Amino acid sequence: MLGLLLKDIYNIRKQAIWYIAMIVLFCGISVVLKNVAFASTIGILVTISMPLTAIAYEEKDGWQKFVIASGTNVKTIVGEKYLLGVIFALISIIGYSVAFMVVGAEEDRLVEFTAPVCMQLLVLAVVLPLVFKFGVEKGRVYMIIAVVLLMAVLIAVLPVLGNMQEGANVFIGCMAAITVIALCVSFLVSFKIYSKKEF
To answer: For 125-151, what is each residue's pLDDT tens digit?
Structure first.
């Protein structure tokens, strides 16, 4: 898996630098405007864009045929894309954490922090099976729809979550559990889809 990960990082290095710069920019905007929604929404975009970019390169170069023919385990192939998304999610979460601390360090807003973090991974869980099923070009349409809807929901609920006090721990626990379950189910679905594909 490490070899596949290094290969993808090398292929998408230029885009990765651009997206990291966007994370810094949006986090800066969040601090200036004192609104963490900007930092949280760019995180969603980055989390799904990196695996999709890597898959797009593979489709263009016919890499899937080669890697399957080489005998590489399908779980490793699929799992590496999830790992790539999680890595860039962590990078964006670091930026979001800094912006969040600067904007609202004096307030207890753990719910407002947790929801966007979980949302990034939930979007990843929704998008990757679609891309494995339909390919990057067709899957991009479904991805855009999913991202726009989830971003709209996130922006709408952030102010409400910021004022949420009672039941906060329950909400955070449920969000974390749902996120983990969604990623596990998503991985299994992607594995089945990839296993049945003919390249």
So the answer is: 988 998 898 888 877 777 777 777 776
Tell me, what DSSP letter sits at residue 163? T
Which carries the bigger pLDDT value, residue 113 or residue 188? 188
**∠ CA 21-41-159 to the nearest 5 degrees?**
135
Closest CA to 80 of 162, 179, 11: 11
Cα(31)–Cα(12) distance, integer angstroms: 28
Question: Alpha-carbon distance 99 to 103, whole Å?
Answer: 6
DSSP 8-class letter at 198: -
Say what the pTM is: 0.85
Tell me if 50 sits within 8 A of 85, measured CB to CB: yes
72: left (phi over 0), alpha (psi -120 to 50) or beta: beta
